[in-house]
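Pipeline run #58 for the internal structure catalog. This entry was flagged by the ingest filter as a single-chain record with no existing model, so it goes straight to prediction. Upstream metadata was stripped on purpose; only the residue string is passed forward. Reviewer on rotation: M.T. Logging verbosity set to normal.
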Amino acid sequence: MQFLNETPVASIIFIFTVITSLYAFNDHQLYGKFMLHPYTVSKGKNLYTFITSGLIHADYMHLFFNMFTFLFFAFKLETMIGHWQFGLLYFVSLILSDIPSVIKHKDHFWYNSLGASGAISAVLFSYILFEPLTTIGVMFIPMPAIVFAVLYLAYSWYMAKNAKDNIGHDAHFFGAITGLGFTIIFVPGVVPQFLSTLGLLR
C-alpha cells in the first residue's frame, strides 16, 4: 500500500502490465488485438495499439527484464518529477518510440512489435539525468550511468541500422531520446543539475 500511496502511477502501470502480459501468454487472440502492426497503423487504423502493445510482452524473459528495470528506476523517478509528469512521460514515450518503427516497417505486412521497451528506456534515461553517476550493472560489469547511457545509445543506433534480430532497437533509441527531451522540457533546472553533478558547472 505504501507504493500505491507514494507512487500511484508507477504502481498501476507495473501491476497492469504484469497482469496483462501474463494473461496474454495464455490468450493468443489478445496478441492480435494488442500488438502494433505498422502496416495497419500507417493506414490510420488501430492507433490504440501504440499504447496496448506496451502492455504485452513476447515471453517471460522479455517481461522480466522490462519490469526489473521499471522496478529499479520508475518508482524513484515518479518521486522526482511528480505523478502526472511520470504518467505523461511513460505514455508519450510509448507512442513516440514506436513511430520510427511504423515508418520503417509501414510496407512490411509481416512485421509486428510489442513490449514496453521504448517507455522503459525513457524512464531510465530520465533518471540518468538526475543521477548520472549512479552505478548501473551490465552483464555484471558496474559502470557510471552516464557511461552506460552513451554505450546504450551507440549500440541501439548501430543495431537499429544493421541488426536483423527482431528486437526493437529503434524503440530503445528513440525511447531514450524521448525520455531525455521530456525531462529537459518538464523539469526546469535539470540540465544545470546534471552538469553540476558531473563537475562541468560550478
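catalog note: The chain has eleven helices and two strands.
catalog note: The chain has one domain: 2-197.
status: ready for reviewer M.T.
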